[in-house]
């Protein structure tokens, strides 16, 4: 269900972006300008680089390129808003699985002192920095930091849990959700792709297919 939600959101935003672009960008002008630029570039090959005609055609290409960029820049003020909203809410919804009994969490601790968390089986002296993975063994969880007790509510959490007390900062990261298992391993990514990679894949596929299908479809009649 999570994979389907990511696919719908990624594909939906990609289609929304394409529609907004087609409504705000004079694509007919852009297509014609690009074709004219190609012809001008062919003409430049047969001209002397120091000639007046060469400089005039080169300047015309530059002006056409600037005009295309202005057209394509128009929808950016609108299209970036849905993505900002999506990227604000999606990590909290899909980045991590809710913590439960037997969940493997990652703990980072910074500071100096004694740290004990029974539900994680942790009893460690901290010197500047400590980091490791732990399995949640029980529902009731208390952190004893330099002799002081603090309640840790981990069960059901799907966001990073932070605790900053008694000269020690603790960060507990829930297990990451994996949506796609690849049949091969990618550099810096591995063989598993989370919500962001899945989002990008579906967005890219939708954009590529839709742009090819709607290549010469103009949603507005431009003068």
Average residue pLDDT: 88
Cα radius of gyration in angstroms: 27 Å
What's the N-to-C terminus distance?
Answer: 46 Å
Total E-strand runs: 8
N-to-C series of helices and strands: HHHHEEEEEEEEH
Q: How many domains make up the 3D coordinates?
A: 2
Give the percentage of residues in beta strands: 25-35%
Name the descriptors.
223 residues; six-stranded antiparallel beta sheet; 5 helices; 2 domains; elongated; two-stranded antiparallel ribbon; single chain; alpha+beta
Fold and architecture overview:
This protein has 223 residues and is α+β, with helices and mostly antiparallel strands. It folds into 2 domains: 2-96 and 184-213, no CATH class; 104-173. 46% of the residues lie in helices and 26% in strands. It has helices at residues 2-24, 27-44, 52-73, 76-95, 195-213, and strands spanning 104-117, 122-135, 142-145, 148-151, 161-165, 168-173, 180-186, 190-193. The strands form 2 sheets. Strands 1, 2, 3, 4, 5 and 6 form a 6-stranded antiparallel beta sheet that branches. The chain has a two-stranded antiparallel ribbon with strand order 7-8. Strand 7 (180-186) and strand 8 (190-193) form a beta hairpin. Helix 1 (2-24) crosses helix 5 (195-213) and helix 2 (27-44) runs antiparallel to helix 3 (52-73). It is elongated. The mean pLDDT is 88.
Helices and strands, with pairings:
Layout: H1 2-24, H2 27-44, H3 52-73, H4 76-95, E1 104-117, E2 122-135, E3 142-145, E4 148-151, E5 161-165, E6 168-173, E7 180-186, E8 190-193, H5 195-213
Antiparallel strand pairs: 1-2, 1-3, 1-6, 3-4, 5-6, 7-8
Helix pairs in contact: 1-4, 1-5, 2-3
